[in-house]
Amino acid sequence: MFDPCKFILAFMENWEKADLEGAMACVSDDISFTPDLISEPVVGREKVRKLWGFYMKMMQEYRMDLCHVIGTDKVVFLERVEHVLTPEAERLALPIVGVFELDDNNKIKVWRDYVESTTMPGAGESQAVLSLA
């Protein structure tokens, strides 16, 4: 029987391996990804692939600490801390809650991340938002 929580955890393992193709195999063609509260959703498989590819290249290291995961048959909440090493050798620890919605084929159709903004680089400063979409 399909377990949506295990599916999302397996999806996140692709991020730890920087496996873009593995991550893309888990999403629908019309995926909508919202990386944080200040960004517009990135919609569509190719736009998401471009953004995620950029993220994976920028992260010199990536590790996720799982805090909590809970779900229904089509919605999963994943609380985690992402540990990232940036190209500038800055180590970040980002507390995040992700909400994942699955389609009828058990592919991710919506992923919204809610990041603790005080942990973001430049918190409290005016920032330009990079949009690759």
Number of domains: 1
- Going across the major beta sheet, what is the strand order? 2-1-6-5-4-3
Radius of gyration: 14 Å
Mean pLDDT: 90
Distance between the termini: 36 Å
Helix % is: 10-25%
Principal-axes geometry comes out as: globular
Task: Give a short account of the largest sheet.
Answer: 6 strands, mixed
Number of H- or I-type helical stretches: 3
Plain-language structure description:
It is a single chain. This protein is an alpha+beta fold and 133 residues long. The protein contains three helices and six strands; from the N terminus they run ααββαββββ. The chain has a six-stranded mixed β-sheet with strand order 2-1-6-5-4-3, with helices on one face. The protein is globular and about 40 Å long.
SSE layout and pairing:
Layout: H1 4-16, H2 20-24, E1 27-34, E2 42-43, H3 45-58, E3 61-71, E4 75-85, E5 91-102, E6 108-115
Parallel strand pairs: 1-6
Antiparallel strand pairs: 1-2, 3-4, 4-5, 5-6
List keywords for this structure.
Nuclear Transport Factor 2, Chain: A; 6 strands
Short description:
The chain has helices spanning 4-16, 20-24, 45-58, and strands at 27-34, 42-43, 61-71, 75-85, 91-102, 108-115. The protein is α+β, with helices and mostly antiparallel strands and 133 residues long.
